[in-house]
Automatic annotation (TrEMBL):
The modification N6-(pyridoxal phosphate)lysine is found at K209. PANTHER family: HOMOCYSTEINE/CYSTEINE SYNTHASE, HOMOCYSTEINE_CYSTEINE SYNTHASE. GO terms for biological process: cysteine biosynthetic process from serine; L-homocysteine biosynthetic process; transsulfuration. Its EC number is 2.5.1.49. One of its GO terms (cellular component) is cytoplasm. It comes from the Bacteria. Belongs to the trans-sulfuration enzymes family. It comes from Herminiimonas arsenicoxydans. Its cofactor is pyridoxal 5'-phosphate. Signal peptide: none annotated. Pfam families: Cys_Met_Meta_PP. GO terms for molecular function: cysteine synthase activity; O-acetylhomoserine aminocarboxypropyltransferase activity; pyridoxal phosphate binding. This is O-acetylhomoserine aminocarboxypropyltransferase.
Amino acid sequence: MTDSKKYGFTTTTLHSDRQKAIEHGSLHKPIHTSVTFGYNDARELATVFQGKQPGYRYGRQGNPTVAALEDKVNKMEDGFATICFATGMAAIGAIAQALLQKGDHVVSSAFLFGNTNSLWQTVGLQGVAVSMVDATDVKHVEAAITPATRIVFVETIANPRTQVADLARIGKLCAERGIVYIVDNTMTSPYLFQPKSVGASIVINALTKSIGGHGNALGGSLTDTGLYDWSRFPNIFDTYKRYPTVQWGIAQIRAKSLRDFGASLGPEAAHHLAVGSETMALRLDRECANALAVAQMLEADERVAAVYYPGLKSHPQHAISTELFRSYGSLFSFELKEGIDCFDYLNRLKLGISASNLGDTRTLVIPVAHTIFYEMGAERRASMGIAESLIRVSIGIEDTDDLVEDFRKALDAV
Ligand SMILES: *Cc1c(COP(=O)(O)O)cnc(C)c1O
């Protein structure tokens, strides 16, 4: 297989390892567990350390099995370069560690994965100001920008209330102002959406979710799309300016986050995630169809107060989602009518498992306010549109009729 022809998403993912003369003709990239890598010529070791020649030195900054996964994810995102991390949060944390300094300002969507919300609070205590805005309209982002704004951070579809950011217009705004535009693509995954198409500078994926897809390994990735001109970024250290400009960002992130903080992905996890990624498109086609069928059934039921899924015509960003995404994702959330206890409902599901992961092959359900969003308190939840009875559903690949029946029968039972 050569690079000369552009293949489809799954073909490219499946065959990406083989483009690099894989050891012994192995079909999977082998799991390299060695922590360090030896050289017959000590001078060669020195040139690798000095970045003058590619090569592995110590597992915290790079490993061949992890590098093969980085290459796969980079192809999925059509990126310039990708770094993998131990978790999705480590990839997001790397932004704070490597790119932000005291006195800087961040504009972030207010509709966020709970742990990212918590991270911005932490960063806020360390001398970086963070403005949380309604990113479904670019004008709120624009109003928050100051001369100190270094990055704008959004999720594609927000977890768990499914608000969709004004992705393309925010991209244009950031390009005009020379601001680094970071998009967390976890909820759409590179199969449903490539943030590079709306001008993202950096794309985050929690590999734990749809890319790995089986709930058996944690991982995260950060992709530099190559679109941002790093010569406009004031926080690049002189030592990384010895590379061509396009490499400044990724070189500094690899060193400052992976080397200094060490949340490196292990080779065994990288192998699990790489194998899982081979079937991502197949799984997501099924999951998106399942999510739409169950969401439509719930929306039509009078015992349900509200359903939030970008695939429903009633969703405020249905039109923009149709325009930007291949499909609407595997996650939706809903509220039951007053008087129906969300715990009673969840306990009556036979297939939906009460658990906190998402993007798994199995359908997972969770009462949001009482679990993942418990710590932030009722006031902040209300500002994010999180009702106390909100149930988040991550639909799996079960047979569609079985899932529709399961969610309907549980309503009959409460
Ligand atoms: C799960 C998730 C993360 C964090 O990923 P972990 O691997 O659990 O650390 C980040 N962003 C979004 C949108 C997520 O759903």
